[in-house]
Specification:
The protein has one domain: Jelly Rolls (Sandwich). Strands 1-2-9-4-7 form a five-stranded antiparallel sheet, covered by helices on one side. The protein has a three-stranded antiparallel sheet with strand order 6-5-8, with no helix packed on it. By secondary structure, the protein is of the alpha+beta class. It has helices at about 10, 20, 160-165, 185-205, and strands at about 40-45, 65-75, 80-85, 90-95, 95-100, 110-115, 120, 125-135, 140-145, 155, 170, 180. It starts with 7 loop residues before the first helix and ends with a helix.
């Protein structure tokens, strides 16, 4: 018999139901999230998934040797140009997403449109951004290498993105932790309501 034994409660704690997960969204997980064209809902399933916002609470708290996140965005929106010091990969669940990348900030060297069930693995240090194209809401599933939390800049943004975020009152300190504007709560609630309404709209239309 195995020396490792788990109770039912311990097993239940390792389950993330999608209906519950969608109540745990963070519309301002990153400093670019307040910018037009980069607004989206992020979910932490396992680990911090590179969050700059310390409010994140992963759906499954047990430590893992990988990190998993999910998210959605409306057409024309997605993460701004940035990089990480570790591998970040994405599986497209819904919609069409254009990924673009480059070897230095401010310069795009290539791009590709991915559709549901397409997968992309982005290497460390390559700058990347992605956005929903077409007319349908887009969902993604992300897997990230393990990494330390709030010990350095992460994500590492294109300097132009940092300047735009600062114009909206959002900064990240040297440890990669978000510095919030005074109206953060108002902005968070407004964006949360707008994104949740957008996510619910297709289901209402299909009923």
């Amino acid at each position: 018999m195995s020396e490792f034994r788990f109770t039912n409660d311990e097993m239940y704690a390792r389950v993330s139901r999608f209906a519950d997960l969608k109540l745990r969204g963070m519309p301002l997980m990153f400093i670019d999230s307040a910018l037009p064209g980069h607004q989206r809902m992020n979910y932490s399933v396992i680990g911090d998934t590179a969050s700059e916002n310390a409010e994140f609470k992963p759906a499954i708290g047990a430590p893992h040797k990988f990190q998993i996140g999910m998210g959605f965005a409306q057409p024309g929106n997605g993460p701004a140009f940035h990089t990480h010091e570790y591998v970040e990969s994405f599986l497209i669940l819904q919609g069409q997403w254009r990924f673009y990348w480059g070897n230095e900030p401010g310069k795009v060297d290539g791009d590709m449109v991915l559709e549901p069930w397409d997968f992309i693995s982005l290497p460390p240090h390559v700058y990347r951004g992605f956005e929903v194209v077409g007319e349908e809401l887009g969902w993604f599933f992300a897997v990230l290498d393990p990494h330390s939390v709030f010990t350095s800049k992460d994500p590492i943004w294109d300097p132009a993105v940092e300047r735009q975020a600062a114009d909206h009152g959002f900064y990240a300190d040297e440890n990669g932790k978000m510095i919030k504007p005074e109206n953060y709560d108002e902005l968070r609630n407004e964006l949360m309501a707008r994104l949740m309404a957008a996510e619910a709209a297709p289901r209402q239309g299909q009923s």
